[in-house]
Specification:
The protein is an all-alpha fold and 79 residues long. The protein has one domain. It has 3 helices and no strands. The chain is elongated and about 35 Å long. The mean pLDDT is 86.
Length: 79
């Protein structure tokens, strides 16, 4: 089992974790476009909600990009 490195009290994160967070965010943005059936990028509000949710999950120790993405998407309540 992979060890999960939590974000510390200074809100810094290691490079491997940041790469996973960025991957999850990018994939979530693409999935929003697919589910909404549009080529238009998500609004700033939607991007902020996705980022906030991904970071909240990462702070809890989640380091799987798919689970981070899916957690963020579930917070948007997309069909």
């Amino acid at each position: 089992m992979q060890e999960r490195t939590p974000i510390n009290t200074l809100n810094t994160v290691n490079f491997a974790a940041m790469r996973v967070i960025r991957e999850a965010f990018d994939d979530a943005l693409k999935e929003v476009q697919v589910r909404r059936g549009t080529a238009m990028p998500p609004s700033d509000d939607t991007r902020a909600k996705l980022a906030r949710q991904i970071l909240d999950l990462a702070k809890l120790g989640e380091r799987d990009a798919i689970r981070l993405r899916d957690g963020a998407l579930s917070a948007l309540h997309l069909a």
